[in-house]
Amino acid sequence: xxxxxxxxxxxxxxxxxxxxxxxxxxxxxxxxxxxxxxxxxxxxxxxxxxxxxxxxxxxxxxxxxxxxxxxxxxxxxxxxxxxxxxxxxxxxxxxxxxxxxxxxxxxxxxx
Length: 111
Description:
Elements: E1 4-6, E2 12-14, E3 17-18, H1 21-51, H2 59-106
């Protein structure tokens, strides 16, 4: 593969930079922070929509506004969960790389 290669010492490189547990944890922190910000934004949007009902007697207006509100809350929720899953995945990758590093240090090289 061109983006990921295996070196002789089992280190993973992506785009010319070595992937380390610290880099994974930093990325996880950033993604988790964005996920929390998106969560608070989603909560605020949902709360605003719940406290301000549509004041119209026209059924078409009520149905369109319900659809738009659902779409807005759904898109904000999707962003929240994407950032959350990325943060979780990066934490798990950091754990995996850490364990691989421990195994690599404990086994003597065959050279």
